[in-house]
Amino acid sequence: MKTYENIHIKEKVLYDKSNNGLKVYYIPKEGYSKKFAIFATDYGSNDKIGESPEGVAHFLEHKMFEEPDENIFDKFSYLGANVNAYTNFNQTAYLFSCTDNFYENLKLLIHFVQDPYFTDENVEKEKGIIEQEIKMYEDSPNWKVYFNCLKGMYINHPVKNDIAGTVESIKKINKEILYKCYNTFYHPQNMVLVIAGDLSFEKIMETVNKREAQKGSIEGKIERVQANEPENIQKSYMEEYLPISIPLFSIGFKDNFESVNESGEELILRDISTNIMLNMIFGESSLLFQSLYNEGLIDNSFGSYYTGYKDYGHSIIVGQTLKPKLVFERIESHIEDLKRKGLSREDFERIKRKYIGNFLTGLNSIEYIGSNFVNYYFIDFIFLDYLNAMNKINFKDIEDRFISHLRKDNFTFSVIKPVK
C-alpha cells in the first residue's frame, strides 16, 4: 500500500493493487456519512478495435446492467444506494453513492461490471432502445448545434462522431463484438476503482480481492490509433433548421497541433489556462457579456468552456439569440480589439482566485473528488495536485494562450435556426 498526501489542501489518497492488477485508490473523508465509488475503464467512444462500429462503448454501458434473473437497479435501491453510469469520448464509468451498506454495494458494483451477460436476443432488443435514444438526440437543438460544431472543426478525429453512434452503426453490433471489446477494454489492468468516504481501506481491498473475477490476458491489443488530424478545420460555417423559436449558436475554436499530444500536468495547465482565459473574455463579469446582455442580444444561456484530451482540444462559446450573425460579429470584433489593447491582469487575478475557491469548495464533495480523480487518472495526473498546477499559471500564460488559440483560421460557427 502507498500513501500520497498533499499537505496544502490537507487531503491524502491511499493506493493499492488487487490480486489481478486492478488499481484501487481511496480518499479518506473522516466524519462523512456519505460514501462514493466509481469503477471506470479507459475506454470511450473514441476508442475502437479494428473495424468495430461506432457506438460500441456506449452500447456496452447499457448492456452491463443486464442480468439473467435480476434487476441491478432494484438491488442497489434495496441496499440504499443510487447507481449510475456514463460513457464519454474517453472513458466509461459505473458509480454509486450511499450512506449504509457500502461494502455490499461495492460487491454488487464489481459483480455486474465484471460479469457481462450478452445474448443475441437482449442485444437485438437493446438496439431498439438505443436507436430511440439516438433519434431523440438528433431532434435536440442543443445537441445538434454542438455536434455540428464538432463536425465543422474536425476532419478525421472521432471526437466529431456521436458517442452513441448512428442508427446504421448500431445495427452492425452483435454479442461477439460486445464480448471482444469488453474482454479487451474491461480488463482490470485497463480500469481503476476510486472510493471516497469514511471507510476502512483494508476492508475495501479485502472486498475487492474476494469479488473480482480472475481475468485472463487482454483479448485484443489496445492500440490508441492516432487520428492524423490536420490543423485546419473542416468547415467554418454550419447551419441547420429545427422547430425552435430562438436560434442557437455554438462557436468552436480548434486547438493547433502544438497544443495537443500532451498528458499529465501539461494537459492540466492547458485546460486551466484556457478556461481562465475564456472566463476573462466571455464570463458574466466581462465587458462583452454585459454589453450583449444589456442590448438584449444574449441571455443567461451564453457561456464558454474548454474541453481537451491527449489528442484533441477545443473551446466552445454557446448561447441563443435572435441575431446570431450579429453576436458572432461582435464576438469576433471583441477578440481582435483585445489583441490590440491586451487582456486585464486584474481580471486574471480575480478569476484565478475564483477557480482556486471553486476547487477548494469542491473538496467537500466526495462525488466531485471521486469523479475528477478518475478523469485525471486517465491522463496521468493525480487530482490532489490540481491546486499546485493552478498556482503555476501566470498572466503571460493566459496572454500566450489567447493569441495562439482564438484565431480567425481555426473556428467553426454552428447555428440552428427556426424552421421557416
TrEMBL record:
Annotated GO MF terms: metal ion binding
Mind telling me which residue stretches traverse the membrane in this protein? Answer: none
Residues in Peptidase M16 C-terminal domain copies: 172-354
Domain Peptidase M16 N-terminal residue range list: 54-166
InterPro entries recorded? Metalloenz_LuxS/M16, MPP/UQCRC_Complex, Pept_M16_N, Peptidase_M16_C
Coiled-coil annotation reads none
Entries under Pfam families matching the protein: Peptidase_M16, Peptidase_M16_C
PANTHER family in the record, alphabetically?
A: METALLOPROTEASE, ZINC-DEPENDENT PROTEASE
Indicate what this protein is called per its UniProt record. Insulinase family protein
Species of origin reads Acidilutibacter cellobiosedens
From the broadest rank down, the organism's phylogenetic lineage runs:
Bacteria, Bacillati, Bacillota, Tissierellia, Tissierellales
